[in-house]
Specification:
Number of helices: 8
CATH architecture of one domain: Up-down Bundle
CATH superfamily of one domain: NADH-ubiquinone/plastoquinone oxidoreductase chain 6, subunit NuoJ
Order of helices and strands: HHHHHHHH
CATH class of one domain: Mainly Alpha
Strand content: under 5%
Radius of gyration: 22 Å
Largest sheet: none
């Protein structure tokens, strides 16, 4: 076994255990923290694949900004409200099991058929060095994918405003009203 394989297996074990802990945790804050661990391990995978820019984006955007947003929302809404029993949807668990089995089947098929896939065409050194570089990603993002980028930013803005409006109305209902002086 090579050192890369050993490191990969250790990190993969940590990633799977963190994901399971995230799913099985009763505390929403602990679940968010386990998700941060998972994001950090994924960023190390990107470093192992010689993609440092994607690794930095993974840590900055996901583990940093989005998880801070999740934690603020959890704390704003109150983690104790998330533990209240919800009404169960009878078809939800069988559907989740079926989709999980489909995912495992697709993954097994991909692993088994890996040898039968034709080899990719050889890439030039210039293509390899330019692939995934910040300049190439920025150029692609702000030319070819400019419209989807702007739509995504607009949707995130609408979601933020909606979350603020919904929590403001909830807080207003929970606060006792002060008697007015007449």
């Amino acid at each position: 076994m090579t050192l890369d394989l050993i490191i990969f297996l250790v990190l993969a074990t940590i990633a799977v255990l963190a994901a399971l802990a995230m799913l099985l945790s009763d505390n929403a804050i602990y679940s968010a923290l386990f998700l941060i661990v998972n994001f950090a391990v994924v960023s190390v995978f990107y470093l192992m694949l010689n993609a440092p820019f994607i690794a930095m984006v993974q840590v900055t955007v996901y583990a940093g900004a989005i998880m801070v947003l999740f934690l603020f929302v959890i704390m704003l809404l109150g983690a104790d409200k998330l533990r209240q029993p919800q009404t169960d949807i009878p078809w939800q668990q069988p559907l989740a099991i079926l989709l999980g089995l489909v995912l495992l089947g697709v993954a097994a098929f991909a692993i088994v058929s890996r040898g039968s896939v034709s080899a990719p065409s050889p890439l030039s050194d210039q293509m390899i060095s330019a692939f995934g570089s910040p300049f190439e990603l920025g150029k692609l993002l702000f030319t070819t994918y400019l419209f989807p980028f702007e739509v995504t930013s607009f949707l995130l803005l609408v979601a933020m405003i909606g979350a603020i409006v919904l929590t403001k109305e909830e807080k207003a209902k929970l606060l006792p009203r002060r008697p007015t002086k007449s």
